[in-house]
What we know:
Radius of gyration: 15 Å
Number of strands: 5
Helix content: 40-55%
Number of domains: 1
CATH class: Alpha Beta
CATH architecture: 3-Layer(aba) Sandwich
Shape: globular
Number of helices: 5
Structural class: alpha/beta
CATH topology: Cytidine Deaminase, domain 2
Amino acid sequence: MDDLKYMELALAEARKAYQRAEVPVGALVVCNDQIIGRGFNLREKAQDPTVHAEMIALREAAKNKASWRLENCQLYVTLEPCPMCTGAILQARIKRLVYGASDPKAGAVDSLYQLLSDQRFNHQVEVVRGVMAAESAQLLKDFFRELRQRKDG
C-alpha cells in the first residue's frame, strides 16, 4: 500500500533529524505518485521555530510545483501536526494528510484541536491517522530518553 511506503520514507527523514540531535519528525509531500517535497525538523540547527518537518516539505513542494497551491497533493508526516503546521496545510490546500503518532501535547488535527475538519475553514483535509504510529512513537521515545540520559549524565 502506498501509505505504508511513503510513511516509511517519512520515517527515514525523521531518522535524519534524530542523527542531528533534532526532534525526530519527518515529512513528505506526494503529488501524482511523485515525491515533490521532503523535510525533517531543523529547529535546533537553524534556531528558527518555524522549520518543522512539514514546513520544510511544504516549502520545497511549492517551489518544485511553482505554486503555493498543493491541491492534489498528500502530506505524510510521522507526528500529528501542530497548530502552525496545520495552518500551513490548510493554506497550501493539501488534499490528504497521513500521519503516524498522535501528539497529545501539541497536535492540532485530533488531539488538542481538530483544525483540518473544522467546517468554518474554506478547505477541509482528508485525514488518515495512525499509519506506522508505533514506529513513529518509538523513535520519539528513544530520542527523548537519550536526551534525558545526556542531561542526567
